[in-house]
Amino acid sequence: MDSSGLGVRRAVGFVAPALVLIGIFLVFPALWTLYIGITNYQLTGPAAANPQVVGLDNVIEAVRDPLFTNSVWLTALFVLFSAVIGQNVLGFVLAWLLRSVSPWLRRTTEGLVLLSWILPSTVVAFLWFAVLSRDTGTLGLLLGSPETSWLVQYPMTSLIIFNVWRGTAFSMLLYTSALAAVPPSQLETARLMGASGWQTVRDVVFPHIRGHVLTNTLLISLWTANDFTPFLLTSGGPNHQSEVLPVLIYRQALEGGQLGYASAMSMLLLVGNLAIALVYLRLLRRRA
Amino acid sequence: MGRTKAFGLLVVCGLLAGCLGQTQTGDQARNADAKEITLTIVANAAVGGKNARGANWIQNWVIPKFTEMQKAKGVTATIKFEQNGTGDEDFKTKVALDLKTGGGGDIVEIDGIWLGEFAQAGQIKPLDEVVGDTGWDGWNQIPKAVQGLGEFDGKRYGVPMGTDGRVLFFNKKLFAQAGLPADWQPRSWQDVLDAGAKLKGVPGVTPIQLNGGSAMGEATTMQGVLPALVGTGKPIYDNGKWQGDSAQLKDVLGLYQKIYGGGLGDPVLQQEANGRQRSFTLFSENRIGILLESDYFWRSVVEPKNGVAKMADRDAAVGWALVPAQRPKAGVGGQDFVSMSGGGVRVINPNTQYPRQAWEFMQFLNSAEAVKESLAGTAQLTQRQDVNDQVLGGDPMLSFIAEEVLPITRYRPGLADYPKVSAALQQATADVVSGRSPDDVAKAYREALVKAVGEQNVG
Known about the structure:
The structure holds 2 protein chains of 2 kinds. Chain A has helices at residues 8-37, 46-49, 57-64, 66-98, 103-118, 121-132, 138-143, 150-153, 155-180, 184-192, 197-225, 229-234, 245-255, 259-287. By secondary structure, chain A is mainly alpha-helical. Chain A has one domain: MetI-like fold (Orthogonal Bundle). Chain A is globular, with a radius of gyration of 23 Å. Chain B is of the alpha/beta class. Chain B folds into 2 domains: 36-160 and 343-374, Periplasmic binding protein-like II (D-Maltodextrin-Binding Protein, domain 2), CATH 3.40.190; 166-341 and 413-457, Periplasmic binding protein-like II (D-Maltodextrin-Binding Protein, domain 2, 3-Layer(aba) Sandwich). Helix content of chain B is 44%, strand content 15%. Chain B has 20 helices and 16 strands. A 5-stranded mixed β-sheet of chain B has the order 2-1-3-15-6. The radius of gyration of chain B is 24 Å and the shape is globular. The interface between A and B is large, with 39 and 38 residues.
């Protein structure tokens, strides 16, 4: 069993620093959230001085809260359209098309796509604000309708397009390396047999990269579900129309001061994430 | 591995055991004789940004002057100024988090209406508990009503920074184009709507800006719902209960519907993330006709030199009128005209290292000399009567507030539940602005209110 020959004590010594860090920054905050989630703890007011344990009341209240159900629905839309469909498809298409173009064009395109991924969120949000705002926004001027306030009139659509733009780079990179694993001889054979582009992708490429697709979808779904950047663009507005779960939780906790209630909601988000992860893992295992 | 797990659990449990919501108070005379002190003052003001005048005053006058005074006593004082330039709600969150975690500045400028929540949370404490003896000759100069801004549950928590009053500001240039008089004074809501209908004829102009929606935060409540509500004769907190879906509340929501459903206001603006700031800019660009605001608008927004939306021709172009009640004599107390008032308060952080010196600094900040200096030649309703007597005469708008508005004004109830009620009111206006009917919205508002403050507290 002890293949490295370290002995239990030394092995523990080696992993202890990592475990301590994980304990402090991951396990402890998670447990702390669970604990606050069963209290009526608030940012200010009497319940800030003497919080009471209220058990599962917060969870029950959340499930009945129309703001919460609205938020779950918006988060599902956000994940489905911007990540599962948008980033996935665009990332794959880019990776597929860029295989056969000249290196300089490939590098330039990849560079631009990557740029949108590595810029800090605040900078990106500011740029998009400039593009989408009313009166002097770039998009409004280009389309000749400067009176349109895109983030107010089409909040979810704007967020979805924004997130596709923002996150496609990861899918593109992952699929680029995945496509390299498809044996060129099989692609060549397909070509000789007269297969169309779509047939090649479906019958030759996809079986090879199925695992990559699932892993990629899992990762980007979870990231998108937890993404807080929408707050920088719309703050959840107008009138809760773009209030995805992380934004709702933030607003309830810090703007509304309901720390306990918001913690219960984050626990529900965590449970939702775990459920999604389990589904993907099961799909992956079935393939194996 | 079992041992590591057990150890990990032990650490986690130990950390969990630290209970929520603790605060401690120390000896009021701690460090009273220190020869080297550091004090930090926190304000939602920034040099060259929000409330620039106040920020300049702290940076360029208060800090050098106070440091010098301390030096004369042989004390090396380092005064730091933590500047902020953000929305009031964000600033409140920040201050609450600071105080909660035992951090934050020594002197913090907050909105008077947050006092109740912070006090009930134990994040601020009565002044005499923090600093000991609070004797000060300045108290005689601060009127009782204004002192009340710094009190909660009969105890004094801080020193108010002045007060304000709300009026309807209007653009005289647009009024001339629409054929409305320069000395306009509406006597009912209908008069305001009629003026709006005339302004609608001027191209490119939004007739009325009455703050609505949650994005504007407290500005919706203070510059929208509450002045309208006192105009119906029934304040939001009446006979020990919060107003539910009363006929008066429905009237107020109906007013919003007439403005935003009738093309007299811009519904999109109410929902934008920076709508309030934008409404200021639009007013200064002669694109909004009538706007309900406090004298802050005159002093700090359209002010020609330091305002955030400067209007070079402010004195000639901006007019003001009392906010009318729904109908003559229909206002609270049978009044024809109404207003709401609030104001900031400076509090001392209970966790300060230097309570006595912080109190000394506080007295200095509120001395006649300092208050007068803070005005930088402009006028404002300060906390001090002696300063007001000297400075208000020079400014027609501020004299108007002092003479005409303060006698008829009302203050918000200083209760810890108020911010929740305020949030429910904001949501209600948001719903009306986005097109729902006042009756439906009033019902939803009542439900939200019951959830927030309890059935027994809703009238």
